[in-house]
# Entry
Amino acid sequence: NIKANDYMNVILMSLCHVTPVREFFLDETNYSKIKLPPGSIMYPLVQRFGDLVRKLWNPRNFRSHISPHEMLQAVVICSKKKFQFTKQGDPIPFLSWLLNSLHYTLTGAKIKRRSVMLDTFQGEMTVHSRRVPPPGESGVGEKYKTTSTTTSFLYLTLDLPSSPLFTEDGDHNIIPQVPIYKLLEKYNNMTEVEYKTYDATYLKKFEITKLPKYLILAIKRFTENRFFVEKNPTIVNFPISFDMAEFIDTAVADKYSNTEYNLLSNICHDGTPTTGTYSTHLHLASAGQWFDVQDLHVTKLQPQMITLSESYIQIYERADLSVDSKGT
# Structure
């Protein structure tokens, strides 16, 4: 940790352990001849990320640790100082920016082309939306009809239930818990989620129509207002493996030989919103072992301890792909 870059470290470490991403960037010829528009500053991001992957997976490393300094400098420059390693940041916006920026650069700024980032993480869903009529209106008319749009996603956002404002005497030390299956019901095409704009309220249902090879779940743990940032301490109960079949239509599930996902990385936040730290739980398949990684500190971890953490971002690998990556 150079100063406050743990929020970057956990994302970089997790992506380096995603097999298709790792295999692609281990071979420099995959991206050495990228042609970008004149004046583009994005190529160092791909170059430095590739360097980082090769250093991390080099079996002949002289030292047991590597420095991400060159990669972090590239992030600062390519993001135009939006993400810095001298100031604590949020891993979710950084993850979104990094995935999209790597895709943009790998395609030579032709974003409609495919890239290893889209092939690995992109799924698709249909969003069904209807406008809620205000009091006194019948709800009849063109603007109140349900509309459906198809969109792609690189990660799914899970909404935690609000923390109780008041607790009974003796309950102040009890931390609320919620099963991940409850949060995933948002995407079962039956649960309606309310969204408010400045002039209207909408109810939306989300229907997943294409499963990604690697599923990223982002848990909305922080809420920010004009005065402060508040953290929701709710513990999300999740298994190491789970099946997405119950959250997608049968016709969609039938397209896949396997709809089960195995946890690969679990990024956690510990502490307050302003002074807390990020760490990641990583599964190394070749060793059959989980590790707790926080900057330079790496310790072995029992699987049952993972579910006790305040999870923030999770990366799952589809089970039919795990067979091909047992040696990683």
Observations:
- The longest strand covers residues 260-270.
